[in-house]
Amino acid sequence: MSVAINGTNGITYNDGSLQPSAPVGKNLIINGDMNIAQRGTNVTGITTTGYYTVDRFSQVVSSAGTWTQTQSADAPTGAGFYNSWEINCTTANASLAAGAFLIANHAIEGFNLQQLGYGAAGAKTITLSFWIKSNKTGTYILGIYRPTSGRQISTSYSISVANTWEKKTITIPGDTSGTITNANTEGFRISWWLGAGSLFSSGTLNTSWGANVSANRAVGQVNLADSTSNYINITGVQLEVNTTATPFEHLQYGQQLALCQRYFWKWTERHAFCAMAAYSTTAIYGAFVYPTTMRAAPTWTGSANADLIILMNSASVTASSFAVEIITTNSARIKIVPSSSRIQGQAGWLETVSGATKYIQADAEL
Amino acid sequence: MYKKLNDLITNQEADVILRLSDGAYIPKDEANTDYQEYLEWVAEGNTPEPAGD
What we know:
Shape of chain B: globular
Strand content of chain B: 25-35%
Structural class of chain A: mainly beta
Oligomer: heterodimer
Strand order of the largest sheet of chain A: 4-6-7-15-9-12
Number of strands of chain B: 3
Largest sheet of chain A: 6 strands, antiparallel
Strand content of chain A: 35-45%
Number of helices of chain A: 1
CATH topology of the largest domain in chain A: Jelly Rolls
Distance between the termini of chain A: 45 Å
CATH class of the largest domain in chain A: Mainly Beta
Number of domains of chain A: 2
Order of helices and strands of chain A: EEEEEEEEEEEEEEEHEEEEEEEEE
Helix content of chain B: 10-25%
Distance between the termini of chain B: 16 Å
CATH architecture of the largest domain in chain A: Sandwich
């Protein structure tokens, strides 16, 4: 067996295959191939900021139209992808107010960025690569903001051909000023600008790392919100410590799901959420251990109390109330008040009633 | 609007806040972005409802 080191793209093996030269885990982006969508695959009527469909990617919007988000099967042919994140304009805003914005964001935890060595000599160069497609050609802005240091950089790229997948590669120098906090807080906020009011576009584009100046963040950005014909698809997002882009690192589905569940998980299975026992005649307790340790203690939400039942003593008991009294990064203590009195010490388990819309979820997103 | 909660077992105030708009249970973890929003809401002079029925 022989190999040839290709300094630009990786290692070429004697069977002709090109393999990445970087170790496993080189991609600092989670869910860059848009394969995981725990929250759902299609959401309409989006006018405010949030995570809606594909995991780890948020839409940031203020006074910039109404949108439908989809985990789409449209992907670049032959590139190894079968999903993309699609955003479609359903109500246009052709003239953005000064403070309006439309952005696609991906946030990276500080713990995962320490290898960059920012804030000191030798800070590493990074390269972001991604596939993008839109009907609207023109100048787009990609920015990175570091909340803890207030440092920011922007670069422009073009969507050259309408309705055609294009691969973009952006190389960003290391920043010898401003460290990235080694913590579970937001280290990088990567922003694909899609629309920007004058508050964010009236200055000179900030193409070097520097203190954040709002007016310099998205100079020249086209307005994707100016027509209901407009859409954008993104996939194959990879950020690596390198001076050039190497082939996308495809993870197994289970690996990627586990990485996503550090930030969000949603339980939609009907059966056996967790074991429970009657602490008293009117309070039933259970401890639920998460699929993985989460970034922070998560916010819990769920569908209605009526969607929950406890199977106990050969009977199904509905919940008259549901509460979460202790929430940690690993588990939570759940309290159910049953609709009828129970015998102290009885054991059982918690389920949801059948139906696709019944759920419990925990959110520790950045 | 938010509401404080009691922990039945310890009979102390729970380390969780209830967001009344959507019934979300928010832990008192400063790395949780919903708790950060709650702290900003309190800093603006607002007061959560007390624990209890």
